[in-house]
Amino acid sequence: MQSLLDALHSDALNELTSIRQLSDLDSLKTLYLGKKGKLTDILQGLGKVSAEERPRLGQIANTIKTDLLTRLEQKRDELQKQEWAVQLQKEAIDTSLPAHRLAIGKHHPINKTIDDVVDIFTRLGFSVETGPDIESDYYNFEALNIPSDHPARDMHDTFYLNTGYLLRTHTSPVQIRTMEVQQPPVKIIVPGKVYRCDADVSHSPVFHQVEGLYVSKNVTFSQLKGTLEHFLRALFGPEKSVRFRPSYFPFTEPSTEVDVACVNCGGNGCNVCKHTGWLEILGAGLVNRNVLKAVNLDPDVYTGFAFGMGIERIAMLRYGISDIRLFYENDYRFLKQF
Ligand code: DAH
Fold first, then answer.
1. How far apart are alpha carbons 260 and 56 in whole angstroms?
2. pLDDT tens, 48-98?
3. Which of 38, 150, 163, 231 has the fewest CB atoms nearer than 10 Å to its CB?
4. How far is CA 211 from the centre of its chain?
5. pLDDT the model gives residue 207
6. Reading across the β-sheet that carries 186-195, which strands appear in turn?
7. Distance 228 CA to ligand 1 centre (A)
8. Can you tell me the distance from the alpha carbon of 10 to that of 135, in angstroms, rounded to the nearest whole number?
């Protein structure tokens, strides 16, 4: 019987060395050590062996079984590692290959400019307000000290709607709407679309403005100057010269137009600044007494400043764009440059 056991041992070991696949390993295990396997077969003969021999043979059978199990596991490890190595090789990734480029969206230069302008003012404590694009004559003109016979109306090229309403020609009506519902101090910045019947390389029938308003007690012109100087240098560069020229708006008194040194030539004179060295950026002034009266604020108690600017013009200057229509054509070749 011992020779049968020894033969089984060496046969099994022989077959084990020739195994190349994990699946064959299980078959081998069943063949030799399974319930109906070769070892069980041999051990069925134990009954015929003498009582003295039986424990010794049993022990040999056990040793063989343990040895085979250990080697089977070793072989399993070995084959598993080989299999993984092959798989890794097959699935290897060449990390030096260029990746697929993701198409990343960009901010539209108009939105970017609005965001930048609004950011500068929110850092100064202004909060954002908005108003409707369809306005009444009252908010767009009357309450802003522009009565129906006022010559300033001609400058606005208004789109009238047949219901007595119009498309707002500026963001200034939001001054009135806000002061009607908020007590001073009112400190707001108002981005939005405005509409005028006008179109060429620098005018679009729809464009964007940002309006500002600060109303409180003892608001002064020097506060307006300081605020706008800070704003223009934050937007165009810290060293930029800023100039205030006297001007006229019905809703402010006194009124001013504010210029920065030309972004193109720095002030020497070029085509962009029409050889003046200056670029007009803002209209502004102290809130007219009539405007305060229109919202039932006592102009002897409250004062304020207001300002307004066109976003397209600022964006064109910032990015060196010469035709306003490029902003609205949604040409990807244009948009992707920002
Ligand atoms: N509303 C004026 C416009 O469209 C711009 C403006 C000028 C707004 C002076 C103001 C201001 O608030 O004070 O053209």
1. 108
2. 888 888 888 889 889 988 988 999 999 899 989 989 999 999 999 888 989
3. 163
4. 25
5. 96
6. 127-128, 186-195, 206-216, 303-310, 278-287, 252-261, 242-249
7. 14
8. 101
107 compared with 308, residue with greater pLDDT: 308
How do the residues of the chain divide into helix, strand and coil, expressed in percent and rounded to 5? 45, 20, 35
Q: CB of 191 closer than 6 A to ligand 1?
A: no
Instruction: Return the residue matching tokens 């308003």.
Output: 213
What is the Cβ-side half-sphere exposure of residue 119, based on CA atoms within 13 angstroms? 8
Tell me which H or E stretch contains 306: strand 303-310
Q: Is 251 exposed, middle or buried (0-12, 13-18, 19+ CB in 10 A)?
A: buried
Q: Quick one: pLDDT at residue 324? A: 92
- CB 208 near ligand 1, within 6 Å: no
User: Residue 18: which H helix or E strand, with range?
Assistant: helix 2-18
Q: pLDDT for 248-296, tens place per residue?
A: 999 999 999 999 999 888 889 988 889 999 999 999 999 999 999 999 9
Which amino acid residue places its CA nearest to atom 4 of ligand 1? 170
Using CA atoms of 250, 256, 257, 259 in order, give the dihedral in degrees to the nearest 10: -170
**Predicted confidence (pLDDT) at residue 152 exceeds the cutoff of 80:** no
Cα(241) to centroid(ligand 1), Å: 22
The rounded distance, in Å, linking the Cα atoms of 267 and 295 is: 42
Ligand 1 atom 5, closest CA: 308
Q: What is the pLDDT of residues 177-201, one digit of tens each?
A: 999 999 999 999 999 999 999 888 8
Which residue's alpha carbon is at the smallest distance from atom 6 of ligand 1?
A: 308
DSSP label at residue 49: S
CA of 268 to the centre of ligand 1 (A): 28
Which is it for the CA torsion 327, 332, 337, 338, positive or negative?
Answer: positive
CATH number of 109-335: 3.30.930.10
* Mean pLDDT to the nearest integer, 234-260: 95
What kind and span of H or E run contains 225? helix 221-236
